[in-house]
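Minutes, project check-in
Item: structure for the 246-residue chain
Input as provided by the requester:
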Amino acid sequence: MKVILVASGKGGTGKTSFTAGAGAALSLLGRRVLLIDGDCGLRNLDIALGMSDRVVYSFADVAGGAVPLADAIAHHPTYERLSLLTAPVALPALSERGMEQLAVQAEEAGFEYLLIDGPAGLPAELSFSAHIATQAIIVTTPDSACIRGAERCARKLEEEYCIARIRMILNRVRPQLIRSGKADNIDDAMDGAGLPLLGIVPEDEDIIACSNRGNSILSIKHTGAARAFSNIARRLEGERVPLMKI
């Protein structure tokens, strides 16, 4: 099982919409995927997935030993291989051992991917997700402030939590601004963050529309962000898929 922490140096990068899109795309490839909302207090992964009426228990209930994983997870109404474990309203006292047991239960249940939508920035609660992660994806937009935040987040994950494999997603990219010289190009963003690029997701207004309706963008189109999510899922599977041309 691949345990992937999805993080960002600052808020507003589209980290949650990316987690939802990538999770759905992996499930369409036939993989069993468990998404965990790790952003306590500001949880909204259930909204992006259209599953607000299905969640009852949180990952803290499982990590704390109150409820077994099999009883706590909510299954997606459309993607049968996609499941969700939401965040608690407030972070209770947790142990690293409890998070390890959660991951063990997920693997024993047959999940092949565990994607954790971590909190934005570098709060203390990030440690619980980072502790069980085997790799990380940093989601950033191309602007300089976000790139700097991505670099700092990556260094913390590498140095404090010993996550060796860290890759970057450039989200909400507007090619016309790059071509006109009004935004940094892709190479500049990679140099600034010091991270290898996993994928480029173009700005797509349908993401907002789908999120508001609780639908996945992959269910309504195969271009734009939907294609980007599908290509990223294939790269996570080890395929060589060309990056979007700018």
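Outcome recorded: The two ends are 33 Å apart (CA to CA).
No further action items on this chain.
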